[in-house]
Model the fold of this input.
Amino acid sequence: MTNTSNKHLHVIAFATPYPPRYGGVIDVFYKIKALHSQGIHIHLHTFTYDKHPEREELKPYCENIIYYRRNTGWTAALNKMPYIVKSRQNTTLLQNLLRDEHPVLFEGLHTTAYIDHPQLSHRLKIYRESNIEHHYYYHLFKAAKNAGTKAYYLFESIKLFFFQRKLKHADKMLAVSKKDADYLQATFPDKSVLHLPSFHASEQPNVAGGQGTYALYHGNMSVSENYVAAEYLIKKVFSHLSVPFIIAGFHPPEQLKKLASQHNNITIVENPDNEAMFRLIREAQVHVLVTFQDTGLKLKLLNTLFNGRHILVNPKMVAGTMAENLCVTANDEFELQHKVMQLMEAPFDEHNLSERKRLLEKYYSNNNNAMTFIKTVFGK
Done:
């Protein structure tokens, strides 16, 4: 085992990584937890909206935690720097980083305001990619319906495209998907780019045997990407089937609830707690996961691979994830309809489970990926 007793790491998180309820925050929290278990001393810097941001749950994994209020509002939004970066630019953060010589992990483009700062030029700087942000914001632009929102996302996408050039100041880059790693390597050919999948809540698959009685889609419904996917599944797939279909997630818009109410076989479970969501995932027979943005690694896919039965996806959901062989793929709504019906009748058996265990251990073990991170950053 690598000697980590004197290894220290600054982690700059774009948001407080507790509770770990969504995407990048899940990756940050379980990465901190896994690195701590390997003896790495974590100095956490995190941005917050809260007046009283301290989270006791983070203290067991960190040497110290410093909270910074985000600088939100029009001043940050109208700056030439992308809003997600400018609102996290804080001189106190820079001063705190300069107190020692430890490596710095920048979690997402959001946190990279100082990645090119001259006073950090000699430091080991690691960029953790969670999305190719200008691609992500361009997809948000296409999905948005309000004209003002569309304009905001389009301008942010352009600003993010030009801002990403600052990543040349990173010494190492860690991408959540193979597709994103390939993009970064092509964009920054002289940099060390590694595919390191997202960290997550599970270490071993916990899939129920037998058969379930419903299909499930889950996600944060206030995120336009998830809302568009849920709307598509209602209109194009499950409105043409009699299969019970549950949509579960945070803050479903009224329009989505109204649309679902028009169909007797479709139910929305609003704001389930962690226990209820886990139960819904384990008991579903088919997980129907579609996206129209092939960006990053979808944490809902990873969560479902560890805890759910059959997984039916469109190609963009599994692009660059190394999970293609563990899911059934459908290219359009007609294939989705047909394969939902097939999978509702197919037990999830030992062969399915053993193959899933093999791949998840190879690519998505938190322990293995923590060791890879340590070797990449600190050497053997």
